[in-house]
Amino acid sequence: MAQFFKPQKKSVAKEKKQLKIDSLNHDGIGVSRDNNKVCFVEGALPGEIVLAQPIQAKAKFERLTVQKIIESNIYRVKPFCEHYQLCGGCQLQHLAPEQQMIEKQKAVSSLFDKFLGTSNSSTLHDLNWQPAIESAPLAYRRTARIAVFYDKRKNELLLGYRQKGSKKIINIKNCLVLESCFSDIFSVFSPLLAKLKAAQSITHLQLYKTENQALIVIRHIKALNEKDIKSIVAATEPYKWQLVFEGETGQYQFYNKNPDEQVEINKNKTHLLHYYLDEFDLKLNFSLDNFIQVNHKVNRLMLKQAIDWLNLNRNEKILDLFCGIGNFSLPMAKIANKVVGIEGVASSVEMAKFNALDNKVTNTEFYCQDLNEPMVKAKWFKQEYDVLLLDPSRAGAFDILSQLKLKRFSRILYVSCDPVTLARDSKLIIDAGFKIDKVSLMNMFPHTGHVETMALFIPSRS
């Protein structure tokens, strides 16, 4: 009888390791080396000597978690959240807030140095770092998704976030980074959802804080009966939350809201939400399908800095790639001659057009285009521009940057939510004849490993 070889799973070494932490990486994780292998140590800080437990071993790297701190970083602090050790929402509560941005800047500088190389004119040593855009340390999240999971085996409902390094959901009692209007969300919904007949049908809660209301979208995969709906309404009524039910079809049902208040956008009727950009006398509308920045304060400061750095004038034409609902396009249109915005999500393009109309901004054009595809035949692609603005997703903008004739732009402003793809794309921009004029971090997500960066590029001959 033939015998088949069945490889055994590689076991992770159980022995704890004593390590000296050299730095934090761009995810806020401690970095060390052991026998020429890179060690990523969760919960460790630069300069610390720790005893760490391996949790994953690969050929070139190893993941570990701190078991004991032998020598501590002077900026180590006690986390303010009781769930911090388990919850995957925050990664840097153990580091003093004033030091978080310093360590993030070091991590981003290292990435630039890695991708650009020491022979490049824009290296680790001469990046023109500007002061970071700061956030309130708490109550800064105006949007969030809270997971709901019914454990049949334990007959237990879990309401919270994913556990660190796991897909498991852990129960949360309170989340201090949410806007204060949601401070009671867990104490209200945990007992409420557990009592519902349809508890197993609810998958998550989506939170939105707008200018004049707080919304809770209740996502369910099966229809809720009238009794369950009444129970939800009764329990939440004292908090004045606007309830929205999202069923399996993806349609949103705003509870106790007049259907006549809906607005038709591209033949689809929807209730609109909005936020104000007072500095630019703008009201930005959005629907529940649209992306908006999590941190309203940082968003406003980010827009102001972008316009200050670009020093726009009334004669210039701007190409805004990954424009969304017009968050950058419309403020810049108030100053420039014209703004052309490109976005891959059709609903966001329609909302950007609506926002321009609603704000009486007449010098914008918006097009729906997958920016990972060839652009040579696109009408907007052939036009002449003075300034390029990019605000891509974590995947970056390599594909579209590879197609554009970058030398026609006098300035390129790159707003990034992933420093790895920013550093990678920066090399492409620099190789096209640009240099980095200035860079800054934006503290969009305090206490997390997320890094938001703004970089301005100008022709190297300048």
TrEMBL record:
Gene from which the chain derives: rlmD
InterPro entries: 23S_rRNA_MeTrfase_RlmD (IPR001566), MeTrfase_TrmA_AS (IPR030390), MeTrfase_TrmA_CS (IPR030391), NA-bd_OB-fold (IPR012340), SAM-dependent_MTases_sf (IPR029063), TRAM_dom (IPR002792), U5_MeTrfase_fam (IPR010280)
Taxonomic path: Bacteria, Pseudomonadati, Pseudomonadota, Gammaproteobacteria, Alteromonadales
Residues reported in the UniProt entry to bind [4Fe-4S] cluster: 81, 87, 90, 175
GO terms, molecular function: 4 iron, 4 sulfur cluster binding; iron ion binding; RNA binding; rRNA (uridine-C5-)-methyltransferase activity
Family affiliation: Belongs to the class I-like SAM-binding methyltransferase superfamily. RNA M5U methyltransferase family. RlmD subfamily.
Species assigned in the record: Pseudoalteromonas denitrificans DSM 6059
PANTHER family: 23S RRNA (URACIL(1939)-C(5))-METHYLTRANSFERASE RLMD, RNA M5U METHYLTRANSFERASE
Residue sites binding S-adenosyl-L-methionine per the record: 293, 322, 327, 343, 370, 391
Chemical reaction(s) catalysed: uridine(1939) in 23S rRNA + S-adenosyl-L-methionine = 5-methyluridine(1939) in 23S rRNA + S-adenosyl-L-homocysteine + H(+)
Sorted UniProt keywords: 4Fe-4S, Iron, Iron-sulfur, Metal-binding, Methyltransferase, rRNA processing, S-adenosyl-L-methionine, Transferase
Classification via NCBIfam families: PRK13168.1, rumA
Active-site residue numbers: 417
Top-level taxonomic group: Bacteria
Enzyme Commission identifier(s): 2.1.1.190
Protein name: 23S rRNA (uracil(1939)-C(5))-methyltransferase RlmD
Domain TRAM: 9-68
Matches recorded under HAMAP family: 23SrRNA_methyltr_RlmD
Any one Gene Ontology BP term: rRNA base methylation
SUPFAM superfamilies to which the protein is assigned, alphabetical: Nucleic acid-binding proteins, S-adenosyl-L-methionine-dependent methyltransferases
Keyword Phosphoprotein: no
Classification via Pfam families: TRAM, tRNA_U5-meth_tr
Functional summary from the UniProt entry: Catalyzes the formation of 5-methyl-uridine at position 1939 (m5U1939) in 23S rRNA.
Transferase found in the keyword field: yes
Signal peptide: none
